[in-house]
Amino acid sequence: MSDVVLAARGVTQRFGELVALEGLDLEVARGGFVVVVGASGCGKSTMLNLFAGFDQPTEGHVTLLGEPVAGIEPRCGMVFQNYALFPWLTVRGNIAFGPRLRGGASDERVSELIRTVGIEGFDDHYPAQLSGGMKQRVALARTLANDPEVLLCDEPFAALDAMTRQVMQEELSRLAAATGKTVVFITHSIDEALLLSDRIVVMTARPGRIKTSLENPLPRPRSAKQQLTPEYLALKREIWESVQEEVLAHIAADA
Length: 255
Known about the structure:
The protein is an alpha/beta fold. It is 37% helix and 24% strand. It has a six-stranded mixed beta sheet, sandwiched between helices. The chain has a four-stranded antiparallel beta sheet with strand order 2-1-4-5, with helices on one face. It is globular.
């Protein structure tokens, strides 16, 4: 069996005259944690939507486990920035929603997920009664409840305050290691990319292509303490210089 779980090969995506992606090639290995960074508008979210099957590429193809992604793909679970919880359902109801559509999830399984993401005692609370960090924990548990092959994360922590964001980064890193899930994570934060990733992919300014891909050698488990080490700072500088070129190109193109 191939170790490649998710792949984009020669993918171009056009929206009218706008070319969002052009000739994109990317492979994601089983159990990998790939973080994608790049200038705004470079096609990061477009790529994630193609992986999820929300859209189809204009050219090229996307595969999951060697099979074409031809429609919305239940084996890819999406975690959004805006939580996307049902306000009329409790924490337990939100987590159980997806599995119930397919025949149901046991109360034990839902309780296990509630414990896994650290929201015990809030089973019967509604989203309006939760903090932003707790809502994102529920969103993550709801995605995990469907037991997806791949977690697709579209800047899920961008709206959180700095301290909550750091806690959620460490939590997601722990969950990914514990479950062995394959993760593709989009962010504008190089620090977030360094804390989470096994591999960091930098995209070019629009039209989006893969500019560079590098393995993250920082030892796990990772925490904010590593951000002051020479190894961390050198890697951050290397990534920033690559991203900065694309940000400047993006600004120049829009001028």
